[in-house]
Amino acid sequence: MKIGNIEIKRFPLLLAPMEDITDRSFRQVCKDFGADILYTEFIASEALIRNVEKTLKKLAIDDHERPVGIQIYGHRIDAMTEAAKIAQEAKPDLIDINYGCPMKKIANRGAGAGMLKDIPKMIKMTRAVVDAVDLPVTVKTRLGWDSDNLIIDEIAEELQDTGIKALTIHGRTRTQLYKGISDWSLIGKVKNNPRIHIPIIGNGDIKDGESAQEKIDKYGVDGIMIGRGSIGRPWIFKEVRHFLENKKKLSEISIQEKTEIARDHFKRSLELKEDKKGFYEMRRHFALYFKGLKNFKPLRLKLLTSMDADEINNILDLIKEQYREN
Fold first, then answer.
1. Measured in whole angstroms, how far is the alpha carbon of residue 151 from the centre of its chain?
2. What's the rounded Cα separation, in Å, for the pair 23 and 20?
């Protein structure tokens, strides 16, 4: 698959941009497990052009992550074009436009998935961003605003005509949020449109190698993007890759291995974040790394409240010991 000058020679697996999830530490861990293209957390254009410190820090990327894209969102065309220029200065490999975030505070302002209610503006904004930067520009969006407005097949060609180099489609509408089952039939319809020549990447409900293979075989997408399935399971990229190449499941990862992955992730988070943020931002990951362990509540509470690195590492040691697998 090629996105502009970026070429992935094997079937590409992409890490979806997720707010408060896909920071540098998590991206690095996912890259270690075989994610082919990474994305930053989505970045507000308005905050970027106002030089908000917290937002500017989200632009930081490492060469180890490449190829990596910076995703931006907003409702004003001039702010989006200026934000794209600022993002380009951080030297990512591509710029992605978020037309898919369903969060009320974003969509109701006309940004993210809210742009699905104003297609002329979406097309104008996309073209303006493409013209503003020298990097490949991609778009991530949804099937439509609701089930009465499934418009992705209609707008895919218009988006392509703006000059974007790839289109990622999440198989839900905005009103679905993340509920129900994602519908890939329209993703497949876009992919099989003979007038579409840019890569079409599918997103939604990829939980393992089998689900990825089924979507590839049935809908012919050019790439698979994994989002929520990677939280607490960054090794999902390795599992999916193994299944795609060998047509069989990888052996289940042990608690001991999960503990060491969580420890490595925690170490990177502390190294890359200032003050207490490295602790706070690991909590959602810790909660899912050990999801499903029996009688885990006391250790989980300690893991999610401690602000002492030594104590957390001791808790991780205790998890390894108490849940030792024979």
1. 23
2. 7
Which candidate, 100, 69, 65, places its Cα nearest to that of 203?
Answer: 100
- Give phi and psi for 128, each to the nearest 5: -65, -40
| Band (281; pLDDT cuts 50, 70, 90) | confident
Q: What is the pTM of this model?
A: 0.92
Confidence tier at 326 by pLDDT (50, 70, 90): very low
CATH number for the domain running over 2-246: 3.20.20.70
Which residues form the catalytic set?
101
Burial call 146-165: b when 16+ CB within 10 Å, e when fewer: eeebbbbbebbeebbebebb
Q: Which of 147, 149, 145 lies closest to 108, judged by CA? A: 145
Q: What is the largest CA-CA distance in the chain?
A: 60
